[in-house]
Design goal:
Belongs to the iron/ascorbate-dependent oxidoreductase family. Keywords: Iron, Metal-binding, Oxidoreductase, Vitamin C. InterPro entries: DIOX_N (IPR026992), IPNS-like_FE2OG_OXY (IPR044861), IPNS-like_sf (IPR027443), Oxoglu/Fe-dep_dioxygenase_dom (IPR005123), Plant_2OG-oxidoreductases (IPR050295). The chain is α+β, with helices and mostly antiparallel strands and 331 residues long. The protein has nine helices and 14 strands. The longest helix is centred in the middle third of the chain and has 26 residues. The structure holds N-oxalylglycine and nickel (II) ion. The site of nickel (II) ion has 3 residues, from loops.
Length: 331
């Protein structure tokens, strides 16, 4: 069966959208967003010479928000622009050229549209492309677009520049738990940590008041490092309300995912977030999910649990965690 892409549906929809994209009232952005208030997600300047201060801010934001932005992170603007530009060019290719990279049943990587899993399921106004970008041993170039020709180079340059940021984040979070600076990353997969890129493409939507892009969720990853284009759309939940997150230009948006919440035994919080869509402009975002290998066991760090602090989460293989979450089976 041919799967309909939201990008095609968007071309046919002028003033209305198909029923399956209309969210129930308790989800519709027009009803559930706190308007006129932007959430002041912490903005952390990574070029501050006081490394202790940076660490402290990262730890504080990860406890209170599960989300923060980093600026002056050292990735050159040109590298980020190239990385975004080749992804945009891919989504602007004719549909049949994108379908060459279509996901096959049961695979995570490839071009696709989220399938419905619930009974009363609604669809998100978004298509995506998933592929791993690190380490080299897990990369399958089959899922990397050949067009534009500079796609591969631009992605490789971005990953190369991302490592430093990843290490700084893990070190700060590790020290914030009272661990040695390498211990948190080791417990998350160490050098086998997988970087999974997702490119989200949210076409213009005639009824952004009624539809959602990605529905409310926390990321399963350890940490997610996201770059958006300049169209507003990311929302975070605070005290049961939804707020627009204003992203600083050239910032990297950091999400604490479920695995860091688990490893920290609940000290750090994974952030509940979702996305809205725009009437006139396509929104895009490029999250990189930092994930343990599938067979790698993750649980509260052994140095953080004892008789007074029992584990609050089960220890299990990352693949099993994902299976349960995706199929809505209790962990
Ligand atoms: C996601 C996600 C946010 C965004 O794909 O997991 O939360 O800003 N995306 O597109
Ligand atoms: Ni997410």
């Amino acid at each position: 069966m041919e799967i309909e892409r939201v990008q095609d549906i968007a071309c046919l929809s002028k003033d209305t959208i198909p029923e399956e994209f209309i969210r129930s009232e308790n989800e519709q952005p027009v009803i559930t967003t706190v308007h006129g208030v932007n959430l002041e997600v912490p903005v952390i300047d990574m070029s501050d010479l006081d490394e202790e201060k940076i660490s402290h801010l990262i730890v504080d934001a990860s406890q209170k928000w599960g989300m923060f932005q980093i600026i002056n992170h050292g990735i050159p603007e040109e590298i980020m622009n190239q990385f975004k530009s080749v992804g945009k060019e891919f989504f602007e290719l004719p549909q049949e050229e994108k379908e060459v990279y279509a996901k096959e049943p049961g695979t995570m990587e490839g071009y696709g549209t989220s399938l419905q899993r619930e009974i009363q399921a609604k669809k998100g106004w978004v298509d995506h492309l998933f592929h791993k970008i690190w380490p080299p041993s897990v990369i399958n170039y089959k899922f990397w677009p050949k067009n534009p020709p500079s796609y591969r180079k631009a992605n490789e340059e971005y990953v190369k520049n991302l490592h430093g940021v990843v290490d700084r984040l893990f070190k700060s979070l590790s020290k914030g738990l009272g661990l040695e600076e390498n211990e948190l990353k080791e417990a998350a997969g160490g050098n086998e940590l997988v970087y999974l890129l997702k490119i989200n493409y949210y076409p213009p939507c005639p009824r952004p008041d009624l539809a959602l892009g990605v529905v409310a969720h926390t990321d399963m990853s350890c940490i997610t490092i996201l770059v958006p284009n300049d169209v507003q759309g990311l929302q975070a939940s605070r005290d049961g309300h939804w707020y627009d997150v204003k992203c600083s230009p050239n910032a990297l948006i950091i999400h604490i995912g479920d695995q860091i919440e688990i490893l920290s035994n609940g000290k750090y919080k994974s952030v509940l977030h979702r996305t809205t869509v725009n009437k006139d402009e396509a929104r895009m975002s490029w999250p990189v999910f930092l994930e343990p290998p599938t067979d790698f066991e993750v649980g509260p760090h052994s140095k953080l649990v004892n008789e007074e602090n029992p584990p609050k989460y089960k220890t299990k293989k990352y693949g099993d965690y994902c299976y349960c979450k995706l199929n809505k089976i209790p962990q």
